[in-house]
Specification:
This protein is about 45% helix and about 15% strand. It contains 7 helices and 6 strands. A hairpin with a 2-residue loop joins strand 4 and strand 5. Helix 2 packs across helix 3, helix 2 packs antiparallel against helix 4 and helix 3 packs antiparallel against helix 4. The longest helix is centred in the N-terminal third of the chain and has 18 residues.
Length: about 200
Amino acid sequence: MPDADDQVTPPPTHAERALSPVGWLRGDHPAPVAEDGIALCLSGGGYRAMLFHVGALWRLNELGYLGRLTRVSSVSGGSITAAVLGMAWPELAWRPDGHADREAFVEAVVAPIRTVAGKNIDVPVGLLGLLTPWSINRCLTAAYDHLLFDRRTVAEALVDLALAPDSAYAGDPIPGLGRIDAIRKQDGRWVVVTSRGLIVAR
């Protein structure tokens, strides 16, 4: 007969899951112990959040914490900044102390976000969404894609990072994706194997 300490907690009911502030995505599981590392959460708030977070990233870089991040989470305006950081990650000339080269950081992260913040895209995007068969959301996505990402995906940037000579090794952290387990060629394409799955360029 099991002791009281050995009792298994029953799974949550449907009502308990619906009221829970945390919802797990398919494939996620609650870790019994918190993972080691530094996480960064970037909140929403439109352009103000996008610009605020650039300043936060800049300061984290000055302190040597930016290169030590193991996870980045974001919503809304913070996601714009997080995506620019993710795309620029391979270009940031990282030093062993966790600092990215200041000029590279300004050119690859700060300048593109400042450029977008200096443009008034809401009216053109709204008009396109109303006057064409595409949704406003699709038009906004296309505008950000054109202004910030040049149709490149974060997965492609991470594969570039992992394949750059002397830039990534097995065991290195990739923010939000865990550590690199391996880098290998699969079906004629390079893939980065992490604890959370494969990163494959298109």
